[in-house]
Design goal:
10% of the residues are buried. The protein is 34% helix and 9% strand. The chain has four helices and five strands, in the order αββαβββαα. By secondary structure, it is of the alpha+beta class. The strands form two sheets. It has a three-stranded antiparallel sheet, with helices on one face. The protein has a two-stranded antiparallel ribbon with strand order 1-2. The chain has a domain of 106 residues: 2-Layer Sandwich (Herpes Virus-1), CATH 3.30.40.10. The longest helix has 16 residues.
């Protein structure tokens, strides 16, 4: 009986061209009848602050008084001494092994911040802590009182 294949007609060829052009313009698998997706919209990150230790609010929700207090707190934090963790060659600083906030061991080169009570912490950990509570997490000494008294003596 011979070959069952028939030769393509002009109608078959035009359908083939249409389906190829559809695939080229909608190669992502979307339906050509649907609207394209909306353009990517960048989300704006609004920082969260803690006007009191138990409250968390977006920066846009703070009162003017709270904004001033937080700006003062940020200014005080920036005046605290900072450095880089170096356990020292003589071993006297071996007793300081971990940041008590994150409970991770200090690693040579970690950015650290010193509080007036001489406790040290990872800079990111203590800065975040001090935005909530202006006391040392180890000895509970008020950080702002020590800072303000050091300004008065200078």
């Amino acid at each position: 009986m011979g070959n069952c294949l028939k030769s393509p007609t002009s109608d078959d060829i035009s359908l083939l061209h249409e389906s190829q052009s559809d695939r080229a313009s909608f190669g992502d698998g979307t339906d050509p009848e649907q609207e394209p997706p909306p353009p990517y919209q960048e989300q704006i990150h609004v920082p969260v602050y803690h006007p009191t230790p138990s409250q968390a609010r977006l920066a846009t929700q703070l009162t003017e008084e709270e904004q001033i207090r937080i700006a003062q707190r940020i200014g005080l934090i920036q005046h605290l001494p900072k450095g880089v963790f170096d356990p020292g060659s003589d071993g006297t600083e071996k007793k300081i092994r971990e940041c008590v906030i994150c409970m991770l061991d200090f690693v040579y080169g970690d950015p650290i911040r010193f509080l007036p009570c001489m406790h040290i912490y990872h800079m990111d950990c203590i800065d975040d802590w001090l935005m909530r509570s202006f006391t040392c997490p180890s000895c509970m000494e008020p950080v702002d009182a020590a800072l303000l008294s050091s300004y008065e003596t200078n």
